[in-house]
Structure formats: C-alpha cells, structure tokens
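User: Hey, my collaborator sent me this sequence without any context and asked if I could get a structure. I don't really work with proteins. Can you help?
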Amino acid sequence: MADGDAVAVAVEPVPATKRRRRKSVKHPGHFETVLDIARRISGTESLDQVLYALVEMTSAEIGCDRSTFFLYDADTNDLFSRVAQGLRSREIRISANEGIAGAVYQSGKAIIVNDAANDPRFDSLVDKQTGYVTRNLICVPLKTVNGDIVGSAECLNKNSGHFTEYDLELLSDIGEVAVPALRSSRFIERMTLAREQEMHFLDVVTDITSEIDLDVLLDRIMVEVTRILGAERSTLFLNDEKGGELFSRVAQGEQVNEIRFPNNAGIAGAVFTTGTTVNIPHAYADLRFNPHFDKVTGFFTRSILAAPLTNKSGKVIGVTQALNKIGGPFTQDDESRLKAFTAEVAIALENAKLFSDVQKMKNYNDAMLLSMADGVITLDSEHVIVTCNSAGLRILQCTNADILNKKFDQFFTGKNSWLAERLAKVEIEQRNDVEMDVEIDVAGKPIAVNLSILPLKSEAEQQLGTMMVFSDISTEKRVKATMARYMDPTIAAQMFENADTDVLGGTNRLATILFSDIRGFTTLTEHLGANGTVAFLNEYFGIMVEVITKFEGMLDKFIGDAIMAAFGLPISHEDDEDRAVQAAIGMIRECRRWSGERAKANLLPVDMGIGINTDMIVSGNIGSAKRMDYTLIGDGVNVASRLESACKAYSARILISDNTYNRLRGTYRVREVDQVIVKGKTEPVGVYEVLDYHTAETFPSLMDVVNYFNEGIAHYRARKFEKSVKQFEEALRRHPGDKLSQTYIERCRFLIETPPAEDWAGIWEMHEK
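Assistant: No problem. I've predicted the 3D structure and written it out in structure-token form, which is a compact way to encode the shape of the chain:
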C-alpha cells in the first residue's frame, strides 16, 4: 500500500469484559493510566476543567499532537467541546451528522484513519480555517453504562507512525471512565446556568411589571423578549376589538410606525385565534407565514416563536412574537420562558392601560363632583382651591364663598396645617397619598375622615394640580373599630355589612390553619421575669400578626406563646394555601431579623416553628349567651398543631401537610420529610418542609442537599437502608448543618440493625403531641 493511500479501519466496540481478557494487547500500566485519569477528573467539577484534564492526559498517554472530547447537544443537534489542544480555549461546535466525529457518534463504531485528507468523512474546513494539518486520527464513541452514545472522542496526529489498535482501545477505556464525570459536570453547569437565568428572569419581570407608562412598557417588553430568548427581533401585537385587527406600535430593527392586519391572518393571527403557542423552525416552509412583511422591511425571517398574551380573566388580548433565534431554532425552554414572561406582561399591560384610563378621568367636571358622596376638593398648580363639591361643603361646614379661590394653606390652617405637608409630598413624588382614620379640625371640633390626595395630570403628562378626597367616618365605623380590638377586623366588618345575617353561625369550611410556637419559651420566661415576658410577647405578637395580616390571614387566638391563624376564613381566596406558606416564610424571616437585633442588644435570641394544614374545619360562635368566642375546631386544626410540634423532632421551622402541599399554586423549595401518623389519628399524613426562608449562608448548596435527600427518602421507602444512608451522608457532606439528614441516618441504621416487619410501609408514628 502506497503512503498516499487513505486507510480507514472501522473497529467494532469491544465489550469491557472481553477487552480485559486480551492480555497481549494491553501494555504495562494500561489500567493504571486509565485509573489515574479517572482519579484526576473525579475531583473536578466544571465541564471546562474536566475537558482540559482529559485532553491533556489523553494526548500525553496516547502520544499524539491533539485530542478532543465532543458531547452531544440535543437542543441544536451538535457535537461540542470547550477545549482543544493547540487552539485557544473556546467552544467548538460541529454538526452531529458531519465529519468523522459525527460519523462515529451516529454509527457507534470506533475507527482508525491513517490518511485523513483522503477520507471522504473528514471535514477539511476546520484545517483550512485554523491552518492546522491533520494527518491521521482515531475516533471512538462515548457511551454510558447503558450503551447510550453521548458524544465522541478524537486523537489527532500520532507523534510517530500511525495509531494502533491499542491506542484505540486505550482511548475507548479513557472515554468509558470519562463519561460519568462529563455528564455530571455538564448537568451541574446546565443547572447553574438555568438557575442564574431564572433568577435574572424574575428580576427582569419584577422590574418591567413595575412600569406603569404604556408606551415605555411596550418598548421595554420587546427589548427584554429579544434579550431573554436570544432573538434578532421581537414584536408585540395588541388586538383592536373594534376593527378586528392585530396591530403593533413597537417593532425592533427596521423603523415601523404601525403594522395592522386581520386578527386571524398569519402566524400571529393563528396564535391569537387558537390561544396556543407556535414554534416554527423554518418560517417559509409554513403556509401560515406571510412573507409580505419581509419584503416591506427587508428582514429575512428564519424561525418564529409566538405566544398568546392572555389577561387575568383568560381572555387573549394580543400576541408576543420573537423572530430568528441566534444559533438555531427556538427550544422548549424558550417556549416556557416566553409563556411565563407573557403571563406577567399581560398583567402589566392591563395595569398600564388602567392607569392611562385613570389619568384621563382625573379632570372631573362639576357635575361628577356634585354627585359624589365623598368630599372632593381640586387645586390648580398654584395651590388655589378651584372646586369643592356639596359633600365637601357639608363635611367642612362651609360655603363656596368660604373656600373657593382661596390658597390651600389659607383655608387649612392651625391644627389642619399638616395637610399642606402631605400636599407638598404628593406634588414632589407625584404619587397618591392615602391616610386612613385621621382627624381634621372643623369649627373647633375634630372630625374623623379617610383622606386621599392625588396628583392631577393631562393626557400629555402635564401637571394640572391636585385632588383631595375625604370620607366622613360614621358612628358605625367608630363602633366597628372598637369591636376590632376584641375580634378579627374582617369579622367585625362583615357584621356591619351583613347586619341582618348571623355571620357568626357555625359553618363547615375548607381552610388552611397555621400554628406557630416559640422554641425554648420556658427558658426565656425564666430569664425575663413576669413583666419582661409580657413586654417580650407583645413585641413578638405585633411582628407576627403584621405578617399574617399582610397575606390576609385571620388571627384566631393566642395560646400562651403560640399563634393560631386561618387562611380562607371568613373570606376565601383561590390561593389561601400559598398565602399561608408565604406568611410562614415571612414570619421566620422576621423572627430571624428580630432575633438578630436582640443579639446585638445582648438579649436572648428567638426561634420558632410553624405547622400548616389544609382541611375541612368547623368555624363559628361557640360559648354561652353571655360570653361568645369565634373559634375553629376539627381534625384539620389538630393536625396543624401536631405539625408545629413535629418541627422539633425533624429539626425544621416550617412543616406543611400533603393536603396543603398538593394545593399550592406557586413554586417553593420543598422536600418531603416523612409519612407520619400523628397522635390521635390512624391515617398517615404526608409531611413536607418549606425551605424558602433560607439564604445561601444559612443553608449552603440547598438544592443539592434537597436532591440527595429526596433520593435517600426514595431508598428509605424501598427498604434500601444502606443506599439511603449514603444519599443522606452526601447531603450532609454538602451541608453539615442539615440535622434532618442526620436524623434519617440514625433512623436507617436502627432499621438496618432491627429490620422492620414485612408490611412496613415507611410510616413513622408520633407518640407526642
């Protein structure tokens, strides 16, 4: 055979068991070489480091000029590598269907090529671009233990002579030990990147949804959609209900003032009419695509991702469209991001529209002012009182001559001079100012009012002046405020709104019950004494009740240092379970903040536990004819109390039942803790721990710990206690402070020494309340 002839040898992959029997092929130190490489990469976490270590050691051991390890990317159907010897460190991508690496990945067969230039599978373009000359090479598939091909590995240009079958076998063995490390490091990299993207996504959504100016909002939406999806252009189409058209006022790229077309035409029309997301990798191959706009703008559309814009009532109000994903077609992750983004954007758009409408309505005419029951005063930009409706004249006990055309600070003087300060604040900040249950002086007598001061603007954002609205608080409201000191304010309000109805009658309701309790309260009371304990509880209850009220929970009662609250009573919401969980997270965070302040003052720290359960409970007025108490009773209440107590056993701060967990609408960092039969019950309750109150400092590597813990729980349920212990130990290694993992290690070791009965179902029975 002449030197110039192309020689390509295809080698069927040899099973590991058979390879080990071929003693004659193995060189001395073969297995030591493979093991040394395995040890080197096992302690490496990042994908770049693993690849660098592999190519460095592989090239040295096989004696070649360069080596490359390619991994398959299912999203783009590419083979990629981060490190190649002789080139700068950067990402290299090739099609999984091209070149020798692609051929080996597709066939799963290892090959030796002694003359690369004359091999039809060899892609010489890379050599031409880099100036590198490939003489010969070997290439093997990278396989998992299950035989799945995840990439391919190449060695280029043997230092002396040609590559041998031993070189091929050594590269295969190196690839075999490298695959787990490559897959693991790639998984970690993708998870880290995904988390960073999602966190940034949340920050962007929060920032955008705070924008209230419609034109600015539309422009920002397009900018962020383009950036988030890595697209070349994005467009937001809104529906014109009167004309039955979709129109766009904002389009990136070429300047387009406005685009209009029927709301059932084209890709956007299909998305609008069906309410479903469309992902088209090749626009011109889709019959729904209208190339007219490309001709008008000079833009060439390759790929399209379009999602419906739906308001909170479920109505489609428009379409968000992204064009030309950079680097390939739009992926399922892109679809998920666009859906989540448009869900938030729709709410922001409606809020912006509402704000625009409110701006137009602020310049009330006299007839509207006269028809209002609340007092209304309008001021011009010079603080001169322009109008005062009849209700305002009645409340202020004055005539038009007394108030109109007077400077604000000339009329509201003396005890009412504080109003001028509030007026100045509104003008500076250009935001509404609301004061509830405040007093103004009228003819020497105090009158309680609810007061709102609002800036008045024109459609062109020109400041017109200010409006003050005040409502006289009736005697009934005064009585309600007094009653609210003795019962939940919501119940008091219902009593007044439904005077003819017995709102305190017993009812069977679905509710979410929250129990909280201070840890080590006895020690605190011994240290504080009687007076100090009362002051401590007053401050603690004030902080906790404020959090509960923020999420519209109903405070039922204080039981010593414990708090019992309900979500869904007396008024239910669709997300009462989420409100309870968010309140619990807020309570723990506030407790930590307060405890930190106490520590700085050399006071004893404070910790607490919370239990949450959702179930049917009985609520109503219980007691005697002379003394009644609105309260909650039932098994659902008892389970919440037991879960609060269980926090101590599981070293947790927030435990929720499976009834609550299965109804949650939001996404939280949660792990399953146990299946428990609480005292007084016969059926097990699924218990979950909520961890969202933690920070990176208080719980390092949280999601890694949760993943290992969940695997440990799965082995535990399957009676594989030894495997379970290993997973819990891995969790502990990442966060030594995770006491729950330690608890399960001890439990598993006990069960190893004392195996459970055959009918054991992984259920733990609690004998304490």
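In plain terms: Residues 165-209 form the longest helix (45 residues). You can pass these tokens on to your collaborator as they are.
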